Amino acid sequence: MQGQPAYKLIFWILVTFTSLFCQGWAAKCAASDHAPTVQQTKVGTGDPPRFMVEVRNNCPMCPIINVHLKCGSFSQALVNPRLLKVLAFDDCVVNGGLPLQPLHKLFFNYTHSKYLLRPILWYFQCE
């Protein structure tokens, strides 16, 4: 009978930590702190140059969806539309708008002079 208060204490500690984890401690990401990033690396020395592009979800807890990039006059002929789809001038969507898992990276290559690619719109899909 003396062990019963200890079990109750352990139970309430677990409930408290579970609640904090699910609703407070890193359960969600702020756009300002965990915005997706785009890095471009020149590959080789050809003319026109070739670039490897990495789009990264920097949120450790939540997928991001519907990632749109500012992409200027990027030509759809340069990359598979499943990886980067040109919707309009200066609006391209990554991965068909499908989720990029936490800390996941998506890569694609293109051969052309360098385009300015940067995230302009995305949504965190936290539960």
From TrEMBL:
Q: Which UniProt keywords apply?
A: Signal
Q: Biological process GO annotation list?
A: cell fate determination
Signal peptide start and end residues: 1-26
Family matches, as PANTHER family: EXPANSIN-LIKE EG45 DOMAIN-CONTAINING PROTEIN, PROTEIN TAPETUM DETERMINANT 1-LIKE-RELATED
What is the protein's given name?
Answer: Uncharacterized protein
The organism of origin for this protein = Ficus carica (Common fig)
Q: What is the lineage of its organism?
A: Eukaryota, Viridiplantae, Streptophyta, Embryophyta, Tracheophyta
